[in-house]
Amino acid sequence: MSEFRGIEFEGLRALVTGGASGIGLATARLLAERGAEVAVLDLAVDAVEKPLRGFPADLRDDASVRAAVEAAVAALGGLDILVNNAGVGAAGTVEDNDDPQWHQVFDVNVVGLVRVTRAALPHLRRSAHAAVVNTCSAAAVVGLPQRALYSASKGAVLSLTLAMAADHVREGIRVNCVNPGTVDTPWVGRLLDAADDPAAERAALNARQPHGRLVSADEVAAAIAYLASPASGSTTGTALAVDGGMARLRLRPAQG
Ligand SMILES: NC(=O)c1ccc[n+]([C@@H]2O[C@H](COP(=O)([O-])OP(=O)(O)OC[C@H]3O[C@@H](n4cnc5c(N)ncnc54)[C@H](O)[C@@H]3O)[C@@H](O)[C@H]2O)c1
Fold it and tell me: Which residues are catalytic, by number?
């Protein structure tokens, strides 16, 4: 019988940033379904349903992050799993975003991740199954048009994932990331709403992924859960693509 049969996350405590929406919410729900105690950190947590516990914080503010992490860890009775998922997007070429926009996106996507991890590490060190999973992006590893700032921030998340994995492997803390393609979340819904022709934009996003559709938030959550699970205890410093083949496959055009 497999040593991982049964409820995989029983007795483990997880904190998910950006857990009030999209990929983070799907991840928080899945970890809770599989037996974890789960806290969600987000700007607004009023809509977070039980058994998830919500802790409001702004990743741009170190004091607010520290207070929320401490409150979440106290409520959970410790911390085994950190999912650094909260993030913001940006559109444009390298000419299109001004300095404040560059600082704002890096402040959330990169320094925000650092702030949460810094506050969580003392607690993770006390866990026998410590895992950090970062939500990176296919944009970190393929050149996408009109995503200069966003891609640069996710490139930093990929590099940080590797550096943190090296720094903490001997402390028993694994660090990995997922690289989703385009995922059907409220974020992408907002992008489609803003497009001149939302149906054509959706069709173009579907076609960009070799499997011909958007990735679901549940599919990304399942990949995050795998990397967070004791079942992946020998996996650290990796990026798991959840992108329908977008980053690695080269198909011939479909025949009409
Ligand atoms: N949707 C996609 O196509 C896609 C693809 C690849 C990677 N990602 C990444 O997945 C992650 C989640 O994206 P999503 O699509 O679920 O988006 P979403 O907008 O549905 O959820 C993001 C959550 O992060 C929270 N957040 C944003 N700024 C914050 C801050 N300063 N402090 C605290 N919380 C904050 C938001 O309130 C929101 O609940 C992001 O890191 C994003 O870059 C998304």
Answer: 150
Contact yes or no for 178/133 (Cβ under 8 A): yes
Contacts of 19 (CB under 8 A, 6+ apart): 25, 27, 28, 38, 39, 40, 41, 42, 48, 52, 54, 83, 85
- AA identity, residue 2: S
What's the CA-to-centroid distance between 58 and ligand 1, angstroms?
A: 13
Q: Give 103-131 pLDDT, tens digit per residue.
A: 999 999 999 999 999 999 999 999 999 99
Q: Is this structure's pTM higher than 0.90?
A: yes
Mutate to test the pocket of ligand 1, among 185, 192, 208, 215 (most ligand atoms within 8 A of CB): 185
Measured CA to CA, the distance from residue 195 to residue 133 in angstroms comes to 32
For the chain, domains (ranges, CATH) are 13-180+215-241 (3.40.50.720), 184-213 (no CATH)
